[in-house]
Design a protein that fits this description.
It contains nine helices and four strands. The protein has two domains: 46 residues, no CATH class; 141 residues, CBS-domain, CATH 3.10.580.
Length: 201
């Protein structure tokens, strides 16, 4: 390859490659060079492409309002095989989030600290301290975490994965600039995004 090509292939490079392969291709050298350069540009774009939250998030989100009972929340989690769900207000904004850990902490108010500590490790995330005065049942407003960490649809999944790891959380509600819930992204979504096309078929 000539020094003045600055990384681009030349017709001589094409001819040399064909000779080494002992191959004949029914296109001109210029066509081959064009194909190569287009493929190279495509590869560079793909390599530098970010995967955004909007590309992998779950859009059909299971939610509840603040009045939903603990029993109702538990039933929804079981029915949909999910481990947490957002609590939304009348405008579609995120008022809080309820997780399995929150439900367990509710039960642990009746079972004592040792039981709570065991389940905290089992679920792999922090749980709010139970209050002895709490009843096992109640509403989403009673048990939800109001300090919700959210993601934007335009966030890179690398950033989101780092937040989940640092905060030891399994999912983030995805909200638009106006605060309206548009999806939810989980650890599983991020893992699936890393699987090469065709590998999960």
């Amino acid at each position: 390859m000539s020094k003045d090509t600055k990384g681009k292939i030349t017709a001589g490079d094409i001819r040399s490659a064909l000779r080494q392969m002992g191959a004949y291709v029914d296109v001109t050298e210029d066509d081959l060079m064009k194909i190569y350069e287009l493929a190279l540009e495509h590869a560079k774009k793909e390599a530098g492409k970010k995967v955004l939250v909007r590309d992998i998030m779950t859009r059909d989100v299971v939610t509840v309002d603040g009045a939903a009972t603990v029993s109702r929340i538990s039933a929804l989690m079981y029915e949909h095989r999910i481990s947490g769900l957002p609590v939304v207000d009348s405008h579609g904004g995120v008022a809080g989030i309820v997780t399995e850990a929150d439900l367990i902490a509710r039960v642990c108010a009746r079972r004592g600290h040792a039981f709570r500590k065991t389940l905290m490790h089992l679920f792999g995330e922090s749980m709010p301290a139970p209050r002895a005065s709490e009843e096992v049942d109640g509403t989403a407003s009673d048990i939800m975490n109001r300090k919700v960490i959210t993601a934007s649809p335009e966030d890179d999944i690398g950033k989101v994965a780092a937040i989940m790891d640092e905060k030891r959380i399994k999912r983030l509600p995805v909200v638009e600039a106006d605060g309206k819930l548009v999806g939810i992204v989980s650890r599983a979504d991020i893992v699936r995004a890393q699987i090469p096309a065709g590998r999960n078929e």
